[in-house]
């Protein structure tokens, strides 16, 4: 279980994806992108736009059930990518590296990039933007919702 949480906003995610795309410009051009679903889909769309890449495939690997990790299971292959040559793999986060290792075995010639990397998974990626402590659970914008929080002053009125 995570000991801390880090919230990533839509704005931050977009900035980090554009920064990753900027760095990837020197590694391309890429024939296509493989997004690891579900977390890699939105970063992949942003990066595809920035790199002017039209071919996007997905690979679906199920590893987590809520915050509990299980055995990885491929539920959809990225057939368009072949062995990965000329392709870019995108994910939001590499955590333990279990998913990344599985995808790397399936697409050994692809470049693997992600927005955020934890120490255990960092060696599996080719490039990432931000390192996150291993014990931090990253809350992405699609995992959270803004909600109303009453002002502190209204709480002291309730006590009176």
**Average pLDDT score:** 90
**Anisotropy-based shape:** globular
Please give the order of strands in the largest beta sheet.
Answer: 4-3-2-5-6-7
> In total, how many domains does the architecture comprise?
1
Estimated helix fraction: 25-40%
* Number of β-strand runs: 8
Instruction: Please tell me the CATH architecture by its name.
Output: 3-Layer(aba) Sandwich
* Class inferred from helices and paired strands: alpha/beta
Share of β-strand residues: 25-35%
CATH topology: Rossmann fold
Q: Sheet with the most strands?
A: 6 strands, mixed
Q: Over all CA atoms, what is the radius of gyration?
A: 18 Å
Number of helical segments with 4 or more residues = 4
Q: Tell me, what is the CATH class? A: Alpha Beta
Q: What gap, in angstroms, lies between the N and C termini?
A: 38 Å
**N-to-C SSE string, H for helix and E for strand:** EHEHEEEHEEEH
Low-confidence stretches: none
Structural notes for this entry:
This protein has 160 residues and is of the alpha/beta class. It has a single domain, classed as 3-Layer(aba) Sandwich (Rossmann fold), CATH 3.40.50. Helices cover 27% and strands 33% of the residues. The chain contains four helices and eight strands; from the N terminus they run E-H-E-H-E-E-E-H-E-E-E-H. The strands form two sheets. A six-stranded mixed sheet has the order 4-3-2-5-6-7, sandwiched between helices. It has a two-stranded parallel sheet with strand order 1-8. Strand 2, helix 2 and strand 3 form a beta-alpha-beta unit. Helix 1 packs across helix 2. The termini are far apart. The model has no long low-confidence stretch (mean pLDDT 90).
